[in-house]
Amino acid sequence: MIRINKDLQTKLRKFRNDKRAYYSMLALLIAFLLALPAELLCNVRPILLVVDGKPYFPIFVTYTEKDFGGTRPVEPDYKSKEFMRWLKGETPPDPDTTPQAKTSLRPSEQDAQGLVLSMDDFEEQGFDPELFRTLNEIRGEAGGSGLGLGDFEEDTGLDLGMDDFEEESGSSLSLGLDDFEEEGTPSPSVSQPKTKPETMQSALPQPREPHDVWTLWPPVRYDYKYIPTESRTGRVALAAPYEVQSADGSRTLASSWKDGHYLGTDDRGRDVLARLIYGFRISMIFGLSLAVTGTIIGCLLGGVQGFFGGWIDLIGQRMTEIWGSIPRLYILIILSAFLVPNTLLLFAILNLTAWMGIAAYIRAEFLKGRNLEYVKAARALGVSNPSIMRRHILPNSLTPVITFFPFEVTAGILALVSLDYLNLGVPSPAPSIGELLAQGKNNLQAIWILLPTFLLLTTTLTLLTFVGDGIRNAFDPRKAE
């Protein structure tokens, strides 16, 4: 059992009595714990998929279509209606029986018998002889000139040129260039093979027997990077979570709630709520990690300078001043010129200067503590310098560390948001609060992007400030209980 000394118990009680700081800490803790399993809240994969009593867990395990009886070794799109219909055993439309719109060569020109030439009248190796024999007979009965098979044989010496297909007056049959053209369709070639429906490969396996399928989806059926290909509201990108008028004002677009986008979509069609949840988690983890590493580095460097003093302190201070005069933004721009920005790179760059603030406070505490009586007594007993620093001076110098920790977290979150806003942070499609703020600035009409993002950021920073104030008041020795 961990035993807390009386002085620490008094400080914790003072912090708890500060209702604003205490409830702010609880709100942040609950929000952060809820955002940690973001994959269980926002995902395009089901949490549980049961097929004929056999459970699958697509969120935790990557399956392929082969695992469900398919043929392709790729992960299926669980949001695809075609895949879910096939998984349940529902028969998809047969391409062979689906009516195909025939491409007519000259649909407006028909002969007296109602005969129309279409693309299906041509075989893979040339013209259909039976078709032209029938055409010749019909044309002969109508009193016009007919086309025979001999007109297309090689040994007749007939040379067909462009002029042979020009219209002639008084002829009941004339073939021109327009006869082989269709608006928006390239002119067909006689020797070009015809694509038949049965030769097309289906993206999904063949229909199978009906199966019992049960699916458990997350509350939001999108993740931070999924871009849907269709929408029931008529808009994928910049879909509003309420009814709006179309750009031309001719119709009303339904709310994005019909597609499951509870806070609408961004300018690429990605779910705003999912990106906020993932972005909040990344920002909190990044800020906490940056505060922890910056505090450790600052305690180490500041403690060494303050404990030994002399030339070590003098040289360390001058180096710190020189290094602190270099803006972090310039360092990031220089490194981004030849390195691909990512989370680890940003974390390393920001850690280059994140330690300097806490190092100055620790240095002052060590300068004051090294001349106290208990330190002199430890030296007289032969205790080593590292032990004196770690076991005697550091525990009595943690007040500024604990007090400024929430503010260090705030500084880390603001640094990440600022870099992402300037497009110098983590590249897309990584979720980012700064990137959402930039989208809101570029699309001021999309208030559903800017307003929730601004509220989330300001609320987080305000709660962290309240917590920092409460800790500072509780650990300040000048404050009476």
Report on this model:
The protein is mainly alpha-helical and 481 residues long. It has 15 helices and 7 strands. The protein has a 3-stranded antiparallel sheet with strand order 2-1-5, with no helix packed on it. Strand 6 and strand 7 (252-253) form a beta hairpin. Helix 6 (272-308) crosses helix 13 and helix 11 packs antiparallel against helix 12 (385-393). The protein starts with 5 loop residues before the first helix and ends in a 6-residue tail after the last helix. The model is unreliable at 93-127, 142-175 and 179-202 (pLDDT under 50).
Sheet/helix structural class? mainly alpha
Topology pattern, helix = H, strand = E? HHHEEHEEHEEEHHHHHHHHHH
| Biggest sheet features | 3 strands, antiparallel
Give the low-pLDDT segments.
Answer: 93-127, 142-175, 179-202
Radius of gyration: 37 Å
Alpha-carbon distance between the termini? 27 Å
Taken from the alpha-carbon principal axes, the silhouette is elongated
Mean pLDDT: 77
Query: How many DSSP H or I helices?
Result: 15
Helix content: 40-55%
Number of E-state strands = 7
- The fraction of residues assigned to DSSP E strands is under 5%
Strand order of the largest sheet: 2-1-5
Descriptive keywords:
481 residues; mainly alpha; 15 helices
Task: Describe, in short, the structure shown.
It contains 15 helices and seven strands. The chain has helices spanning 6-17, 19-35, 38-41, 81-88, 129-141, 272-308, 310-324, 328-336, 343-354, 356-369, 373-380, 385-393, 399-421, 433-442, 447-475, and strands spanning 48-51, 54-56, 122-123, 126-127, 213-216, 244-245, 252-253. Helix 6 (272-308) packs parallel to helix 9 (343-354) and helix 13 packs antiparallel against helix 15.
